[in-house]
Design goal:
Length: 357
């Protein structure tokens, strides 16, 4: 529609697509609208605002947000006599719990209950990468930095959970089990699941066990405090540069960010409010499950967007996905995988222009 000159006035977009759109000049700068509006930027989560910035200006405003946490089966933890996850959990404590929670419950000689499960694309993987001190790209997105020891260590940790310790079902094992993603947690096949608020609408249907959510475990300590990172999710709203109704489009954005609208949409169980005061408010936090919803909400204070890179979607499709598949299959180790991804990505990025928020 855009190429044909029949673009809408406003777009709802995953922020991962933001760099490609904004560098193509497709979106209008929103600073003038923000300046003459009653819009309070200080009440919007900082990481989500950052995701809509380009060269110091706003081109997209968050409509809602998500991040990453650890959902856990309270019934299984109680049955095994294990302390429930909390903000004191390190990677070592997490791994030890995974080992104890992984079992052969049927007596078939093969494990059918696992300690942990997670999707394996860039959003959940970023949190583990950052929490080990690594990153996908350098600050301006002109170079892939996955060949560092920190990045290699993060991916080897996850690969070992699957292939060495066998406490996390690999994609191959998930195929054998006949279920994947949220269903692994809902059916009790995994005791812990890495995910976000969007899972609550599904997990609310669980009848066979109690569950809750906790922060991701940490690995590093700085100045005596845990170093925490979580990956931003959610969608943004942008106004097309070619729109003839920009003022009306901005009014819609203001409407979408009204506290009562933020609360109503978030109660559908897919995304959290982009407005801090709504997310921290009693109406949102009084949901029956999970009990510890506040951990996801306060996790937004250390949530950050994926590194901006206009070429990322190509890198993800052509390089990242295929190479990581080989890692999860055990055909290569993390060092080989990260070096291959970095080498191939940097060939694409040779002509990349710096992207600065």
């Amino acid at each position: 529609m855009v190429a044909a000159g029949q673009a809408p006035d406003i777009m709802m977009v995953d922020y991962a697509f933001f760099p490609a759109w904004v560098t193509a000049g497709r979106w209008a700068k929103l600073d003038p609208y923000i300046e003459r509006s009653s819009f309070d930027l200080s009440d919007v989560w900082e990481g989500s605002l950052l995701a809509g910035r380009y060269e110091g200006s706003y081109y997209a405003i968050p409509m809602d947000v998500n991040n990453q946490g650890i959902f856990y089966n309270r019934t299984l933890f109680e049955k095994m006599g294990l302390a429930e996850p909390d903000d004191t959990w390190t990677w070592d404590i997490f791994k030890d719990a995974c080992m104890k929670l992984t079992r052969d419950t049927s007596g078939s000689g093969r494990r059918d209950q696992y300690g942990f499960g997670s999707s394996l694309y860039w959003e959940p993987l970023s949190s583990w990468l950052w929490n080990n001190g690594g990153d996908w790209f350098n600050e301006d997105g002109t170079s892939c930095t996955l060949e560092t020891p920190e990045a290699i260590g993060a991916f080897q940790f996850l690969a070992d959970l699957m292939l060495k310790d066998e406490v996390m079902p690999s994609p191959t094992r998930q195929t054998t089990l006949g279920i994947s993603d949220d269903q692994l947690f809902m059916t009790g096949r995994v005791a812990m699941w890495g995910g976000g608020y969007w899972s609550i609408s599904s997990f609310g249907q669980i009848k066979d066990h109690e569950w809750d959510v906790a922060p991701l475990p940490y690995r590093l300590v700085e100045d005596g405090q845990p170093v925490r990172n979580s990956t931003l999710g959610g969608v943004h709203l942008a106004i097309l540069e070619g729109s003839k109704s920009k003022d009306a489009a901005w009014k819609f954005i203001e409407y979408r960010l009204r506290p009562e609208i933020q609360l109503k949409s978030s109660m559908l169980g897919l995304s959290m409010p982009a407005i801090k005061s709504v997310a921290r408010g009693p109406e949102f936090l009084s949901q029956p499950v999970p009990n510890n919803l506040i951990s996801l909400v306060e996790g937004m204070s250390y949530t950050k967007p994926f590194p901006a890179n206009p070429d990322f979607l190509r890198i993800d499709n052509e390089i990242l996905g295929p190479v990581l598949d080989q890692l999860w299959l055990g055909k290569i180790d993390a060092a080989q995988a990260m070096n291959e991804i970095a080498d191939k990505s940097n060939k694409i990025l040779q002509k990349a222009k710096p992207f600065r928020r």
